[in-house]
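Field notebook, page 756. I keep forgetting to write these up properly, so this time I am using the form the group agreed on. The chain and the ligand, iron/sulfur cluster, are recorded exactly as supplied. Prediction of the bound pose follows.
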Amino acid sequence: MIFSFELIKSYYERLPHLMAETRKSLERPVTFSEKVLYAHLYSRKDFRSYGRGADYVDFRPDRVAMQDATAQMALLQFLMAGKDASEVPASVHCDHLIMAKTGSADDLRSANVSNKEVYDFLSSICDKYDIDFWKPGSGIIHQIILENYAFPGGMMIGTDSHTVNAGGLGMIAIGVGGADAVDVMSGMGWELKFPKVIGVRLTGKLNGWTSAKDIILKLSGLLTVKGGTGCIIEYFGEGAESLSCTGKATICNMGAEVGATCSVFAFDRSMSDYLESTGRAEISMLAGEVKEHLTADPEVYSNPDKYFDQLLEINLSELEPYINGPFTPDLATPISEMKRVAVQNGWPLKIEVGLIGSCTNSSYEDLSRAASIAEYAISKNLVAKSMLTITPGSEQIRAIAERDGFLATFEKIGGTVFANACGPCIGQWDREGAGKNEVNTVVHSFNRNFAKRTDGNPNTHAFVASPEIVTALAIAGDLTFNPVTDYLTNRNGEKVKLAEPSGFDLPPDGFATFENGLQEPSADKSKISVIINPGSERLQALNPFPEWDGHDYMDLPLLIKVKGKCTTDHISMAGFWLKYRGHLENISNNYMIGAINDFNDKANSVLNQLTGNYEPVPKVAGFYKASGMGSVVAGEENFGEGSSREHAAMEPRFLNVIAVIAKSFARIHETNLKKQGVLALTFSDKDDFARIRETDKFDIIGLHEFLPGKQIKIIIRHSNGEKETIFANHSYNETQIEWFKAGSALNLIRNKNKKN
Ligand code: MIC
Ligand code: SF4
């Protein structure tokens, strides 16, 4: 079922009617984002105007996407749901577990050996439950989705925060935890608080060294890592229309880095060109027939102040290339300022490695433009001062980049081509010498640059830039180099200014035919068995979490008060730990090991209140659990930002953490905690965070009256006998409170399916 053509066709046939209904209910011009959302309401019966940023709504996404590192847990949960097959088209992609080391062929061979058990499990479960399975080496989930499944005006959820990439092809595509995927695959509604809509008007046209990536790098600086929370970002304007479809996808991809629910562009010429070029001319034609419904009503774009919750504007003609980082993707520095800023901050200026590719930036356009720079440098007798690596997004892209000579160009300038997978973007990079933890700088065209994420070394300063800028910087070997103004010296001692990049939006010779790596589900299910070896260290069948016992919680010790940024990488680290993504007990040994304890500024060293010793966080949590106690975690702003991995919520649940109280949460993580049955609470007064002491215990009071909008009382018991009462807010609605009571959202589904 490569792109469920019938499903798309029938959707486009129904669209005019759906839009007529939408307009009748809203009685105002409608943004494109809202059109797609209303067209995907779970039940037409509930049709009414929903409050943006206020009402919870059930949706019916068209499809589900999962990548291997999250699919394991998603499908282990799906196994418990009691269904015979996925009720919506779904796909699994083997991309995250491949370690980048020497190069594509060898790395893939090792991955097939080291991850065999997991791949076999995923492949058999997909076969059995009617899910498309994309083998290791086929490419990165988001690139494959764009090339094969995404369609304008569609709606999709995916167990990866960069699912949002498909907004480049006009899709409302949202990153979620695996438990959400289970809802949709079980045929239930998928719940989301109706998002607000931020409009971004793009004027002018990109030129010179700037590319689509710079738009989102600049916007990240404007919005910061939490500025998009609860919002869809809708791009429009002449600048939007001038961008290629894959450029749009890059922008939508990195919308995850500002916390946006997703980002989207309306259907236009660039999308039909892309659809045609990737063999989907029929979809392009059908979309063309309903194109007025695949964009906002004209009043919206001509009067955007009135119809968007917030409006931003970027003039592409004036935009400069940006370099964002280190350690956070929203620290945006225009390239002309980098010299001053880098020196001022004492960042290491020598670039060790430039890395291009990933799901964010490995389109034909990206690779052709980056290759043009390398080609020019070679012709001018320049050598690259830094190492250069390339991770193509899919086998399709790799094959044509090879055919069209780009890979040979990169290799000529000293580049190494890694497997079509996530690799260094997710710490799956066996970088020589990384263990020495030396202070150093790398520049990449990926999307995230949190500490330790690239190579596990906390002292690696990772900067994010476009593939063009990364290539230029890798040639210069220097973070302060600005290709727009600066010269390099070649092997003959001559001064050379790099030529501006040039390339193609789409391959002039089309996409190649090749083995794409898809395994379609088999028709005969009788011989398929899904095996989980009980002795396995990588896969473990799940046991349902216990339901709430109906009592308030008393005397819960503080497990950790986390200082500053606490991303999902701090909560459940990737890299080495990816191998335990299908084994809850084993992966729980990484719980919070990257988070900084507010009381001693150390990672993975917290006070065990029972023994008086400082020990690793998972050990202390496990100790409390074994002593029959729960515990509490306290955190600051945007807690759980970053990835969709629900391990960051299942681990605390497994370790008996009862509540996480934060100043604020990132959307996906908050939902993940709720779904797994951990109380996700926010301080009603953010200063209360400061009241928490290392030896505190907590009572969580009045849970029998746990109601939407009602604060929860918490008594903090200090060890000197003093008590303080604080109140926590929460965003639970009635259904979500039922998840908590049942022990998890999945327990509710199970109970329901058992009854049927
Ligand atoms: C990431 O980019 O952090 C990941 C790895 O793709 C994650 C998913 C995961 O943790 O498996 C994401 O973005 O959701
Ligand atoms: Fe893979 Fe990186 Fe993309 Fe996540 S952001 S899907 S790790 S390439």
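OBSERVATIONS:
- The mean pLDDT is 95.
- DSSP finds 27 helices and 30 strands in the chain.
FOLLOW-UP: compare against the apo run.
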